[in-house]
Amino acid sequence: MDVYSNGNVKNLETASTTVQIDDSDFLRLLDRPRPISIERNRSFEEKSFNELSSTLSPLLFHRNVEKNSFHIFDLLDHTFSPVRSSLNTPRSNHCFEPHPVFTDAWEALRRSLVYFRGQPVGTIAAIDHSSDELNYDQVFVRDFVPSALAFLMNGEPEIVKNFILKTLRLQSWEKKVDQFKLGEGVMPASFKVFHDPVRNYETLIADFGESAIGRVAPVDSGFWWIILLRAYTKSTGDSSLAEMPECQRGMRLILSLCLSEGFDTYPTLLCADGCCMIDRRMGVYGYPIEIQALFFMALRCALLLLKQDDKGKEFVELISKRLHALSYHMQSYFWLDIKQLNDIYRYKTEEYSHTAVNKFNVMPDSLPDWVFDFMPSRGGYFIGNVSPAKMDFRWFCLGNCVAILSSLATPEQSSAIMDLIESRWQELVGEMPLKICYPAFESHEWRIVTGCDPKNTRWSYHNGGSWPVLIWLLTAACIKTGRPQIARRAIELAESRLLKDNWPEYYDGKLGRYIGKQARKFQTWSIAGYLVAKMMLDDPSHLGMISLEEDKQLKPLFKRSLSWSH
């Protein structure tokens, strides 16, 4: 038994790590063993996970209930091998002893559960009693996503369903910042459970940005909510939640905010600083890659979830048109490889006509020196921002990984992003995965861009800090692109430190060597991010709930320069 952060007591027991088959199935499979065909000219590391999964099929698991022990029967050798098992560990497709860090992570994740009127509705941001709580005692929408995926992968969808419905209910509240009313579709950044001891009654208190640093509404919350609804539907096979009139209306309200007509000349979304994971002033105002990639993915998920009724059809048409324009814009103007970098370096300025090459009038002298050394001969990435006379050439991990998972990136671009990560491992991963962005602002540039923010000093927090939560996104991207060895290497780095460092929120330094100077310990999404990465690597079929295959209809009529053509 354990006492959770809001005073509720729940049992920590989880399902044991077994895969059981009955005797008849076992004997039938014995009679018809399936041979394994392994190509000798390719290592296991080089194979895609779909190929690797197929090689595990001849291993069957048999449980001795009385002794609570397990044996693997190899259909090729017709031999039994004993394997130890651990009680009270999460469900798994394999019955091997879990890594100690994995076991501790599950216990920590369950301690973070937040209950509302007896039902689990989310996970608290952090349980660090050594620091002031501030808003770390709340359930954040973006923070809960890796926790939700972990529970879905472990066959526990109820908490995810509760979270989806509770945040949907909060969306319907009237939202005001000072005297200004926010759009009806805005989802909360976070919420907390307030217990009235006098009336012995619980209520939810939501923050839509009115209490946040900078008073900025969370643009990403609505996108993550739609993505999570699709993950729940894909994982459980239950479409009834998404088909509820309330969920359909919630999606339409979010989409109305994003698809409304205005003065925009681009299909991308114009955003303020601090509207996403980077929730402080960090020069991401404009058209940040994180928001554009999440926007694209949410649109594709909504296309799969919306009903084809009178209300839904209108949005389906709007989404289809926007997806075509958005994919072309992002793949054409946000993509950077060595050929495109050289083209920008040679740009003419002050062009005026439809035939202009330098469409955004970017000044070649504004190219930062570091980008020439950072760009490998093979590889590329989506840059941080593109707007009139401005290109932010920084690398942002979340946006590029989501671009791969949503298929905003073409298969060739996805491979080029992974090539970049491998080529620039020291810069982007170092000693603790992963850099939220690269490089960091320093000196005069730091003072101008961040406003002398003491939390975002160079190589710290959002300014080039290393965030363990991002490992789940990297792992998903690695599996999708057939590069599991990259994810395995990153996970091993994380396992060497996270537990003994008490699951910090972020790490500081160029290599991510030091625990962040203001990092909270027992940060829930650091815990959940590791769990999701580990479970996806163990069972790559989990990738399906968070990945979308390429839509051939969204391919542009022509492509700009790409690294793989050189």
UniProtKB/TrEMBL annotation:
Keyword match Kinase: no
Please name the InterPro entries in this protein's record.
6-hairpin_glycosidase_sf (IPR008928), 6hp_glycosidase-like_sf (IPR012341), Glyco_hydro_100 (IPR024746)
**Catalytically driven reaction(s):** Hydrolysis of terminal non-reducing beta-D-fructofuranoside residues in beta-D-fructofuranosides
Keyword list (alphabetical) reads: Carbohydrate metabolism, Glycosidase, Hydrolase
Q: Give the matching Pfam families.
A: Glyco_hydro_100
User: E.C. number, please?
Assistant: 3.2.1.26
Asked if the Swiss-Prot or TrEMBL record annotates the protein with the keyword Iron, the reply is no
Family membership noted in the UniProt record: Belongs to the glycosyl hydrolase 100 family.
State the protein's purpose: Invertase that cleaves sucrose into glucose and fructose.
Name recorded for this polypeptide: Alkaline/neutral invertase
Q: Which organism is it from?
A: Vitis vinifera (Grape)
